[in-house]
């Protein structure tokens, strides 16, 4: 084993027991993605140099907590997928759902398409461009996003991509209450209702995840 390989092995987080519980029979594909992301993610600018020791908990499983919230047979648009979180992870975990991964950066789209092909994910498709470029081009039942922008800007980018009665599911940090406060006018304007902030993963992960969940429109 080369010296640099030993160095990487020492810093990469061991797979937590929760991974197999959360991924079920999709665990092998999730492991394949984790291995490639750990090996090439930093070089490709997909994850920061400090992320390897928390790749599973902070990135892969933090994304995976959304999987049980996705509607069976529905269509999900993940906005700003970057290196794959949460959209590609969810595409692995929920083969019954169709995913559109919306990402403007060419290099990231190439990476996502490579992973989709390698893992044989026939349910997952990359849409290269900014969310606003797809307004009127397609509709989703649910929209996911992580670390793209604050709620006040994210809502106008995403709501036009949602069908009536569709749902927003945004992975957010501790700033979410302040973000909701700052976005009050925008939320009202875009008919965002039934707003909840839910904590997910507390039973399985050392760190739970905060999710902004809301419906959009008058019906459904
Ligand atoms: C900080 S990265 C987060 C990537 C990934 N969601 C994650 O959590 O690891 C933000 C991503 O959003 C993308 N992005 C920024 N503005 C966007 C827009 N208007 N529509 C779609 N994607 C956007 C960027 O290209 C980038 O890949």
UniProtKB/TrEMBL annotation:
<comment type="similarity">
    <text>Belongs to the methyltransferase superfamily. RNA methyltransferase RsmG family.</text>
</comment>
<keyword id="KW-0949">S-adenosyl-L-methionine</keyword>
<feature type="binding site">
    <location>
        <position position="85"/>
    </location>
    <ligand>
        <name>S-adenosyl-L-methionine</name>
    </ligand>
</feature>
<dbReference type="GO" id="GO:0005829">
    <property type="term" value="C:cytosol"/>
</dbReference>
<dbReference type="InterPro" id="IPR029063">
    <property type="entry name" value="SAM-dependent_MTases_sf"/>
</dbReference>
<keyword id="KW-0808">Transferase</keyword>
<dbReference type="InterPro" id="IPR003682">
    <property type="entry name" value="rRNA_ssu_MeTfrase_G"/>
</dbReference>
<dbReference type="GO" id="GO:0070043">
    <property type="term" value="F:rRNA (guanine-N7-)-methyltransferase activity"/>
</dbReference>
<dbReference type="Pfam" id="PF02527">
    <property type="entry name" value="GidB"/>
</dbReference>
<comment type="function">
    <text>Specifically methylates the N7 position of a guanine in 16S rRNA.</text>
</comment>
<feature type="binding site">
    <location>
        <position position="80"/>
    </location>
    <ligand>
        <name>S-adenosyl-L-methionine</name>
    </ligand>
</feature>
<protein>
    <recommendedName>
        <fullName>Ribosomal RNA small subunit methyltransferase G</fullName>
        <ecNumber>2.1.1.-</ecNumber>
    </recommendedName>
</protein>
<keyword id="KW-0489">Methyltransferase</keyword>
<feature type="binding site">
    <location>
        <begin position="131"/>
        <end position="132"/>
    </location>
    <ligand>
        <name>S-adenosyl-L-methionine</name>
    </ligand>
</feature>
<keyword id="KW-0698">rRNA processing</keyword>
<keyword id="KW-0963">Cytoplasm</keyword>
<feature type="binding site">
    <location>
        <position position="146"/>
    </location>
    <ligand>
        <name>S-adenosyl-L-methionine</name>
    </ligand>
</feature>
């Amino acid at each position: 084993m080369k010296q640099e390989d030993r160095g990487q092995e020492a810093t990469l987080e061991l797979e937590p027991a929760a991974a197999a519980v959360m991924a079920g029979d999709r665990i092998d594909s999730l492991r394949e993605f984790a291995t490639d992301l750990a090996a090439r993610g930093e070089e490709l600018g997909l994850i920061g140099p400090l992320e390897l020791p928390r790749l599973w908990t902070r990135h892969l499983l933090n994304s995976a907590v959304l999987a049980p919230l996705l509607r069976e047979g529905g269509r999900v648009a993940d906005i700003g997928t970057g290196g794959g979180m949460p959209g590609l992870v969810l595409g692995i975990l929920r083969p019954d759902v169709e995913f559109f991964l919306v990402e403007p950066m060419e290099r990231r789209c190439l990476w996502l398409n490579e992973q989709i092909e390698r893992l044989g994910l026939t349910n997952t498709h990359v849409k290269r461009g900014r969310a606003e470029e797809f307004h009127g081009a397609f509709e989703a039942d649910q929209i996911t996003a992580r670390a793209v922008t604050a709620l006040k800007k994210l809502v106008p980018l995403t709501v036009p991509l949602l069908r009536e009665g569709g749902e927003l599911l945004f992975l957010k940090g501790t700033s979410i209450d302040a973000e909701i406060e700052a976005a009050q006018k925008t939320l009202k304007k875009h008919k965002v209702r039934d707003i909840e902030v839910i904590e997910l993963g507390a039973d399985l992960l050392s760190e739970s995840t905060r999710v902004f969940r809301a419906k959009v429109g008058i019906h459904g």
